[in-house]
């Protein structure tokens, strides 16, 4: 299975101790049966000097069939076959291997080696993997070989962000595994987030985040920035979504910038905007909680510095519009506010001011189409989008429109009827007096 086909591949298997007698067969260490299929080739050129054999373009047929047990140091340069390149080393060295030093260099496609490639090699003392494109390494590679003394790993493409090296981050500084990595402080992260950052610093951060992440949340680094002094500042997302929390976690990792609390049972925003441990949060996601009011935002310092606030899917009926306006104006960081899926109260007292706010900050308030009046029997406002709703729907509507008959209206009707009757009677009496000269009956009985 092991097909070494890279151009300029250098594959070096060396037995370090020159004093060992080379009288064992299989002394180049066997790859397991699925492992190396060393096929002879006549183009190959092998040169032996002492106990060292250097082969170019494969292994000469003579050496495959010949007296290979004499070889203590096998160096294979420029393996043949150009169509595919070695990207993964498959198989592993057997426990009977007597190899003391293993070097694999210059494989420009080799990004992964199996966890147990060397772990059973009880004689292995030196493992040199410099100059490949390895991205991660499994713990057993370094913990397995009992007599491993030195490991060289620099000049690879280490990926510090995919979790493949997290085990190394959690190693104690003085642990055996950490100490055998000779060039630990020269290692550099290459992929994504940490491109160009010193690996040891990134490992320290990963360890710190692991130790400070509150339960039951998960913490992840989403960005890193470099400060003026060259220090690395991680930007950490603390994800506590859907954990049935009734209050936010009481502690956060230092430099946590995002807190996700969607789908919990929080009913207040108060601790988040008032307690100091949350002050550095930039982005706060509170979707699908049970928040009825956000009065606490008024006057809070956090509200003038935050970046994202999502309150979708809560029980908000109204907000302190003036406080929102003031904070949005003062806040230079603000990127997004989400207020949709709340049962907004649609009346003439709240809606004109709220609609003006929505329109004034339509670039900031990102989900205008979801900000709608609560469900109600009044079809002109029920679940109508507030930002585009005619204000006439809630203000100064014509009275004829199915105004419910209240008791005060009944009294009004009766009173106006009575006035009408009295004025009518007066006009009738006056006309009657002018034509007949008779006083109305009421005047005749009055004294
Ligand atoms: C060499 O290795 C093969 C396969 O692992 C094994 O069958 C054979 O017995 C070994 N020979 C010696 C002398 O160890
Ligand atoms: C909130 O709940 C709604 C409805 O259950 C769901 O569709 C939505 O994805 C949830 N939002 C988040 C951020 O979990």
TrEMBL record:
Pfam family, one: LRR_8
Cytoplasm keyword on record: no
Residues making up the signal peptide according to the UniProt record: 1-18
Xref: InterPro entries: Leu-rich_rpt, LRR_dom_sf, LRR_TM_domain-containing
Keywords of the record: Leucine-rich repeat, Membrane, Repeat, Signal, Transmembrane, Transmembrane helix
Membrane-spanning parts: 410-428
Annotated Gene Ontology cellular component terms: plasma membrane
Ranges in a coiled coil: none
PANTHER family: ANTIGEN BSP, PUTATIVE-RELATED (PTHR24369), CHAOPTIN-RELATED (PTHR24369:SF210)
Protein name, UniProt field: Protein singed wings 2
Organism: Leptosia nina
Species classification: Eukaryota, Metazoa, Ecdysozoa, Arthropoda, Hexapoda
């Amino acid at each position: 299975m092991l097909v070494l086909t890279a151009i300029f591949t250098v594959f070096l298997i060396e037995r370090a101790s020159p004093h060992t007698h080379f009288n064992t067969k299989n002394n180049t260490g066997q790859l397991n049966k699925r492992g190396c299929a060393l096929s002879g080739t006549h183009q190959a050129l092998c040169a032996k000097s002492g106990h060292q054999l250097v082969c170019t373009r494969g292994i000469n047929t003579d050496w495959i069939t010949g007296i290979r047990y004499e070889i203590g140091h096998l160096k294979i340069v420029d393996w043949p076959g150009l169509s595919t390149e070695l990207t993964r080393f498959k198989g592993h060295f057997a426990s009977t291997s007597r190899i003391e030093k293993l070097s694999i260099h210059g494989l420009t496609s080799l990004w992964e080696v199996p966890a147990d490639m060397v772990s059973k090699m009880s004689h292995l003392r030196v493992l040199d993997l410099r100059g490949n494109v390895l991205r991660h390494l499994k713990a057993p590679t370094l913990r397995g070989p009992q007599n491993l003394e030195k490991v060289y790993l620099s000049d690879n493409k280490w990926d510090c962000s995919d979790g493949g090296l997290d085990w190394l981050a959690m190693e104690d500084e003085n642990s055996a595994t950490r100490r055998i990595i000779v060039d630990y402080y020269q290692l550099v992260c290459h992929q994504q987030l940490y491109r160009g950052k010193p690996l040891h610093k990134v490992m320290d951060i990963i360890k710190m985040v692991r130790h400070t992440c509150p339960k039951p949340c998960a913490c992840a680094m989403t960005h890193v920035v470099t400060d003026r002094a060259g220090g690395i500042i991680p930007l950490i997302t603390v994800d506590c979504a859907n954990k049935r929390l009734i209050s936010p976690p009481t502690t956060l990792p230092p430099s946590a910038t995002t807190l996700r609390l969607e789908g919990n049972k929080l009913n207040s925003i108060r601790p988040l905007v008032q307690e100091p441990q949350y002050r550095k949060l930039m982005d706060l996601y509170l979707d699908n909680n049970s928040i009825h009011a956000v009065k606490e935002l008024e006057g809070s310092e956090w509200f003038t510095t935050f970046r994202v606030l999502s309150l979708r899917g809560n029980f908000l009926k109204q907000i302190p519009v003036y406080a929102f306006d003031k904070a949005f104006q003062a806040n230079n960081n603000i990127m997004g506010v989400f207020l949709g899926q709340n049962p907004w109260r649609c009346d003439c007292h709240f809606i004109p001011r709220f609609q003006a706010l929505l329109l004034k900050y339509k670039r900031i308030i990102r989900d205008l189409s979801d900000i709608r009046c609560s469900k109600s029997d009044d079809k002109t406002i029920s679940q109508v989008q507030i930002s585009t709703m005619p204000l006439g729907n809630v203000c100064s509507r014509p009275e004829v429109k199915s105004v419910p008959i209240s008791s005060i209206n009944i009294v009004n009707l009766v009173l106006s009827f009575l006035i009408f009757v009295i004025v009518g009677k007066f006009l009738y009496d006056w006309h009657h007096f002018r034509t007949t000269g008779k006083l109305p009956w009421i005047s005749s009985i009055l004294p």
